[in-house]
């Protein structure tokens, strides 16, 4: 069919796929016996258990808002821009985490540097193509003057 999906239907897909992924992850965590490791990590969190839970909940909510924004870009602008934004944000966020939160376990290595450069090139190529299309379309349009 040629019917376009609505924002609400895509939003439902995001929510339900996240719910299914959460359930599968929780079951896998229980089967592997990793829940004890999570408890140990929570107990070892320097700011306390409450802030550990708040950080996890905040991260989950942030990801949902991020994906709703990405889907919103598809509906309001284009799927290409949505993909460009999602490709750019992942390496930038990991570099910003290292810079601002000073994680000692995480550092900017070659892979993150290559991902950041590749993301920058993809964004530059996308915006250059837009610029070129707009410039070419401006040349094609010639007003007709009749005498």
TrEMBL record:
Keyword Transmembrane helix on entry: yes
Keywords: Membrane, Transmembrane, Transmembrane helix, Transport
TM annotation in the entry: 7-31, 51-77, 84-104, 110-128
Record keyword Transmembrane present: yes
Annotated InterPro entries: PUP_plant (IPR030182)
Any GO CC annotation of this UniProt entry: membrane
Pfam families: PUNUT (PF16913)
Lineage: Eukaryota, Viridiplantae, Streptophyta, Embryophyta, Tracheophyta
Record's protein name: Purine permease
